[in-house]
Amino acid sequence: MLTLLQHCGRNLLTIRTVQTVRRRSYSAQMSKSVAVVLSGCGVYDGTEIHEASAVLVHLSRAGAKVNMFAPDVNQMHVINHLKGEESQPARNVLVESARLARGNIKALSQLSVGDHDAIIFPGGFGAAKNLSTWATQGKDSSVNPEVKAVMQAFHREGKPIGLCCISPVLAAKVFPGCEITLGQENDDKYPHTKDTAAVVSQLGCKHVNTSVSQSHVDAENKLVTTCAFMCDAPFHEVFDGIGLMVQDVMKLA
Q: Which residues are known to be catalytic?
């Protein structure tokens, strides 16, 4: 009987130890604060809604505290998403991004790097139109000064930066020689990857071929990228790929 009690006691101690470790691990994740930068609302002139939602769901599951930001500037233009045509009047990136953030969002100028452990940029044409001029100028494009300054600040502090879909081109402009992924260059399921990757290479950066279900980690620069809707993939595959990107960002945070 004494032997049995001792055995049970050791088992109970082991279980409690495991539970304690798990609680500590969960608490450590809970303490992570992640900034998410939006670029409007809607794939053709702002943030890709499903990508933003996927980022937020995966961050929530990871126990992260999320703060959302967007530059307080006008969009490059406004697209009628039903007709695919430009429309009026002009719209503000911060105001439109507030739709995705359920109103809980701040101007990018208010983002404090010291208050965050990581930063993530969902995709959508807004990254190439409102956060930069990539959509119209490609290799010769410029990044919004606030966006550039924030990215450089996180990089300088050794804090990870996550990007998906077209937003990795921001890193290609800000961090010469970095590694990113935009998907597969020679696959019809990735119709825009080959040309975009060619421009990235011209900028002196390395493009790494990955599938939609994968992410790529540039360990030296703490950049984590995934191609998301650069691939004509089902929603769940994009969701899972973004999940891997978020996981890798959290590991580095």
A: 165
What distance in Å separates the CA atoms of residue 99 and residue 31, rounded to the nearest whole number?
26
Pair 58, 25: CB distance under 8 Å: no
Structure tokens belonging to residue 58: 């995966």
* Contacts for 228 with CB less than 8 Å, ≥ 6 apart: 48, 51, 123, 164, 165, 212, 238, 241, 242
141 SS3 class: coil
> What would you report as the CA-atom Rg of the chain, rounded to the nearest whole angstrom?
20
Neighbouring C-alpha atoms within 13 Å toward the C-beta of 50? 15
First to last CA, the chain: 49
- 76 compared with 117, residue with greater pLDDT: 117
Tens-place pLDDT, residues 197-215: 999 999 999 999 999 999 9
Q: Which of 137, 125, 122, 129 is nearest to 69 (CA)?
A: 122
Closest CA to 51 of 183, 245, 250: 245
Side-chain-facing half-sphere of 134: CA atoms under 13 Å:
27
Q: Is 142:48 a contact under the CB 8 Å cutoff?
A: no
Would you call 23 helix, strand, or coil by DSSP?
Answer: helix
Q: What's the pLDDT tens digit per position in 122-139?
A: 999 999 999 999 999 999
